[in-house]
Specification:
There is one protein chain. The strands form 2 sheets. The protein has a 7-stranded mixed β-sheet with strand order 3-2-1-4-8-5-9, sandwiched between helices. Strands 6-7 form a two-stranded antiparallel sheet. It contains 9 helices and 9 strands. By secondary structure, the chain is an alpha/beta fold. The protein has a single domain, classed as Spore Coat Polysaccharide Biosynthesis Protein SpsA, Chain A (Alpha-Beta Complex). Helix content is 30%, strand content 20%.
C-alpha cells in the first residue's frame, strides 16, 4: 500500500524552546529525525509539515521536503492531516514526531505493516515494555493496555494496569505487564481526515492524550510491540544526553 511519512514540526516548544533547531551535534535535531525516518523501506516519501518559515529554511538547507501549514493548527495531528489532504494517491499516512531523532526505520515499517495486514483497522501505533518503576510511575510516560488481539483498551499517564499488590518481579515478567506508548502513528488517510473533525472527549481533555478521542468514538487502535525504547527529546536533559551519545567516541 502506498504510504507517506509526515513529520509535524512546530517551532515553539514549552520545556525546550525551539528544540527542533538545536544543532550542537552539527545537525539540527529535526534533520536527525528526518534522516532516521528515511531508513524506512515501505514509505513512498517523506516530508515535514512546518508551522514557521524558520523550520522550512532548515529543512530546505539539508535537502528535505517541506510543506507550510496553518500556524494556528490545534495539534501536530491537524498539521499532518492538512498535508495529507493534498496527497490523494496515498493510502497510509505515518505521523513521526519531529523530536524523535533515533526513530528506527524498522519501527516505521512495522506500524505501516500493521495496517497493511489488517485491512479493517484504521489506525496503528507502537509500544515497548516498561522495566523500571520510575518510568512506570512517571506521568510523562504514557502507558497503554491492550486486549488479546493487540488493540488498545486505554492509554493513561497513570500506572495501568494498576497492581493491587506491588512486587518488583512484575517489572520483569514475560510477556511484559506494562507498556509505554511510543509516539508514532499510522492512519488510513480517510480516517485521519475524519479524526481532525471529531470533538475532543472528556478522557482526552483530562489526560491530555489525543489518541483517547479515537477510543471514545468506539474505533480501535492496533498496537505493535517493539523492543525500541522511547527516544523523544522533551527536556534540556534529554537533549544533552542525545548530544553526548552522538558526539562520544
Amino acid at each position: 500500500m502506498k504510504s507517506q511519512i509526515i513529520i509535524p514540526a512546530r517551532l515553539h516548544s514549552t520545556r525546550l524552546p525551539e528544540k527542533l533547531l538545536l544543532a550542537e551535534t552539527g545537525k539540527p535535531l529535526l534533520q536527525h529525525t528526518y534522516e532516521s525516518a528515511q531508513r524506512a523501506r515501505r514509505p513512498a516519501g517523506i516530508c515535514v509539515a512546518a508551522d514557521d518559515e524558520r523550520i522550512a529554511e532548515v529543512v530546505r538547507a539539508f535537502g528535505g521536503q517541506v510543506v507550510m501549514t496553518d500556524p494556528q493548527a490545534a495539534s501536530g495531528t491537524d498539521r499532518v492531516a492538512e498535508v495529507a489532504s493534498q496527497l490523494e494517491d496515498m493510502e497510509i499516512i505515518v505521523n513521526v514526531q519531529g523530536d524523535e531523532p533515533e526513530v528506527s526505520g524498522e519501527s516505521i515499517d512495522q506500524v505501516i505493516q500493521l495496517l497493511e495486514e489488517n485491512p479493517h483497522e484504521v489506525m496503528a501505533t507502537l509500544a515497548t515494555p516498561i522495566r523500571t518503576r520510575s518510568l512506570l510511575e512517571d506521568p510523562a510516560c504514557v502507558k497503554v493496555v491492550m486486549d488479546d488481539g493487540g488493540r488498545a483498551l486505554y492509554f493513561s499517564r497513570s500506572v495501568i494496569p494498576h497492581p493491587r499488590q506491588w512486587d518488583e518481579a512484575l517489572l520483569h515478567a514475560e510477556p511484559a505487564h506494562f507498556y509505554q506508548h511510543l509516539g508514532i502513528y499510522a492512519y488510513r488517510r480517510p480516517f485521519l481526515l475524519e479524526l481532525t473533525t471529531l470533538a475532543r472527549s472528556v478522557p482526552e481533555e483530562l489526560e491530555s492524550l489525543e489518541q483517547l478521542r479515537v477510543l471514545a468514538q468506539g474505533r480501535s487502535i492496533l498496537v505493535g510491540v517493539t523492543s525500541e525504547p522511547s527516544i523523544g527529546i522533551d527536556t534540556p536533559e534529554d537533549y544533552r544526553a542525545f548530544v553526548r551519545k552522538m558526539t562520544s567516541g
